[in-house]
């Protein structure tokens, strides 16, 4: 039986209550909005790209604890990374929360606390919403992304 | 609650044996994550009693054949049962004639049928369709589509902070331009019982026809379409202990006869040549193709089952539960009830401090408690209350005060996790 504490780890609860990089970036040159109509989660991800590199990142929006903590920790893990590196982390993170394969050999660091999500398939979309939004921002897509 | 208000609630509830009723619903024995299932998502779909499940099996084991077609034995049995079900539904909502009962896939299809047939022939450019601020998406979108196609305008009657329709505002919005009023009898997101009888009278005074979405009403209230003077009344089987995939549209005979068909196909015709088709009479004109005959058998069993217990007794029991839940859940620190209308049925919607409903739903599920979390297909209602979503506990005849206590305990557990 999946345990609640596997999902709601202290680190996740703490990030959901005090999200990092929770701001609209004045200097943003990339931006995307993500929306999960199932639960009403809505985030905007702001990027200041320096060539291929994420120099600065911020996000704003509203959502459940899982989606907010995931967005917060995502900003920490991809800041300073290249577009390609950030995408690799996302793919690895996606494998982690869906419980699929091992993906590419990328160090997830603190993001490993989201491993419990794989026991709660209904919550995978919460954990990945900000990441899909990041991907859209990196691609420079203008349309809103949706996880439904 | 209006249906129960007229009867002495305690006396009615006294002869109601909820434990015996629970034994008749096989799924209620399910264990979820090691806990007994506490099923409080009845507004989404109710569970099915043994009688309904047996009716489906009996249909396939002993009666299955296509209706209105063959001359053989089984086809005759199936046809008779199908038409007997129509008569059962007629009595259930007190329609004047069985031919006013059309079987559909559910409420959604019934509402679309009215929009696409009555609506298309009677709503034109500059006309108005009036709905309320608490409608389910299925009673918004079909009218939006119609208005967009016809150049008509969709108007919305507002509600107050308790989730009650502002009747005076509604009446102000009615005019000679109003061709259709579409209103939910009971709000699925808030539980509000709308004063449909009064609303219908006001609409008729302006010459508008009224379509009532009764999906959340028929499981909880005695509905009398003639007393309401509803022009159309739609509901689903699966929310009233019946099978999925079957629903009903009631329509006044004269309106139905004047309407064009919804879909073309078998059974809805009286003769077909390549030059011209003559349509069948109502209700068959609106029942193209082979219908969900097993579903109809199951719906009939569900109505018989509810009648056997008594809708007044069901209403009284649920009313008592809702009052108890309102008191117990409302008393939990941090809980804010959404939808506190004086007249309510079956639904307790709430939010909790800063905890998102989706997190609450997961934590409750871990304790075996099934609630709905989200916007309940009523995004404009969420917007009205400036919230992204709510947690909704919704009741059926088999729920108990013990289950309400389990919910209260579950919410306290949520508060612990997020403390």
What does this protein look like?
- The complex is a heterodimer of chains A (148) and B (419).
- Chain A has helices spanning 4-7, 10-17, 65-78, 83-98, 124-139; strands at 30-36, 41-50, 53-62, 145-146.
- Chain A has 148 residues and is of the alpha+beta class.
- Chain A has one domain (4-139): Sufe protein. Chain: A (Alpha-Beta Complex), CATH 3.90.1010.
- A four-stranded mixed β-sheet of chain A has the order 3-2-1-4, covered by helices on one side.
- In chain A, helix 3 packs across helix 5.
- The model of chain A has no long low-confidence stretch (mean pLDDT 90).
- Chain B is an alpha/beta fold and 419 residues long.
- Chain B has two domains: 2-32 and 310-417, Aspartate Aminotransferase, domain 1, CATH 3.90.1150.10; 53-307, Aspartate Aminotransferase, domain 2 (3-Layer(aba) Sandwich).
- In chain B, strand 5, helix 7 and strand 6 (153-157) form a beta-alpha-beta unit.
- Classes of the chains: A alpha+beta (148), B alpha/beta (419).
- Chains A and B meet through loops of A and helix 14 of B.
Coarse structural class of chain A: alpha+beta
Our estimate of the beta-strand percent of chain A is 15-25%
Low-confidence stretches of chain A: none
CATH superfamily of the largest domain in chain B: Type I PLP-dependent aspartate aminotransferase-like (Major domain)
Shape of chain A: globular
The tally of strands of chain A reads 4
- Percentage of residues assigned to helices of chain B: 40-55%
Largest sheet of chain B: 7 strands, mixed
Give the N-terminus to C-terminus distance of chain A in angstroms.
Answer: 27 Å
């Amino acid at each position: 039986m999946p345990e609640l504490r596997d999902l709601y780890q202290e680190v996740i609860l703490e990030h959901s209550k005090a999200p990092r990089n929770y701001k609209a970036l004045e200097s943003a040159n990339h931006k995307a909005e993500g929306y999960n109509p199932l639960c009403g989660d809505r985030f905007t991800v702001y990027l200041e790209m320096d060539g291929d590199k994420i120099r600065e990142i911020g996000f704003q929006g509203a959502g459940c604890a899982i989606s907010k903590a995931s967005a917060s920790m995502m900003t920490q893990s991809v800041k300073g990374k290249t577009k390609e590196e950030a995408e690799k982390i996302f793919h690895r993170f996606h494998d982690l929360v869906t419980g699929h394969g091992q993906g590419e050999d990328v160090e997830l660091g603190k993001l490993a606390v989201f491993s419990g999500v794989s026991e709660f398939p209904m919550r995978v979309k919460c954990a990945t919403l900000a990441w899909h939004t990041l991907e859209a921002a990196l691609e420079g897509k203008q349309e809103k992304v949706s996880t439904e | 609650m209006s249906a129960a208000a007229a009867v002495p609630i305690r006396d009615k509830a006294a002869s109601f044996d909820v434990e015996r009723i629970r034994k008749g619903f096989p799924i209620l024995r399910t264990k979820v994550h090691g806990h007994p299932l506490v099923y409080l998502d009845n507004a989404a779909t109710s569970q099915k009693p043994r009688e309904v499940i047996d009716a489906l099996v009996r249909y396939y084991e002993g009666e299955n054949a296509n209706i209105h077609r063959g001359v053989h034995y089984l086809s005759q049995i199936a046809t008779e049962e199908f038409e007997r079900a129509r008569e059962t539904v007629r009595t259930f909502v007190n329609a004047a004639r069985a031919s006013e009962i059309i079987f559909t896939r559910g409420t959604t299809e019934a509402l679309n049928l009215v929009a696409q047939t009555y609506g298309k022939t009677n709503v034109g450019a500059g006309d108005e369709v009036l709905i309320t601020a608490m409608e389910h998406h299925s009673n918004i979108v079909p009218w939006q589509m119609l208005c967009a196609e016809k150049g008509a305008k969709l108007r919305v009657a507002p509600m107050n902070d308790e989730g009650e329709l502002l009747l005076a505002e509604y009446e102000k919005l009615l005019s000679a331009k109003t061709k259709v009023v579409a209103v939910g009898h009971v709000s699925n997101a808030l539980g509000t019982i709308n004063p449909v009888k009064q609303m219908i009278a006001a609409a008729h005074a302006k010459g508008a026809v009224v379509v009532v979405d009764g999906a959340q009403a028929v499981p909880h209230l005695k509905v009398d379409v003639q007393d309401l003077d509803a022009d159309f009344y739609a509901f689903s089987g699966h929310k009233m202990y019946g099978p999925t995939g079957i629903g009903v549209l009631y329509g006044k005979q004269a309106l139905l006869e004047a309407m064009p068909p919804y879909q073309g196909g078998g059974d809805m015709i009286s003769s077909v040549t390549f030059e011209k088709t003559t349509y069948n009479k109502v209700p068959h004109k609106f029942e193209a193709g082979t219908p969900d005959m097993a579903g109809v058998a199951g719906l009939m069993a569900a109505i018989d089952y509810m009648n056997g217990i008594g809708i007044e007794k069901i209403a009284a029991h649920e009313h008592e539960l809702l009052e108890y839940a309102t008191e117990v859940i409302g008393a939990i620190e941090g809980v804010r009830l959404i939808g506190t209308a004086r007249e309510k049925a079956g639904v307790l919607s709430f939010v909790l401090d800063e905890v998102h409903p989706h997190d609450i739903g997961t934590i409750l599920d871990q304790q075996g408690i099934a609630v709905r979390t989200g916007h309940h297909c009523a995004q404009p209602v969420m917007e009205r209350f400036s919230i992204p979503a709510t947690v909704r506990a919704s009741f059926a005849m088999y729920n108990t005060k013990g289950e309400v206590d389990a919910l209260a305990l579950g919410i306290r557990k949520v508060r612990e996790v997020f403390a």
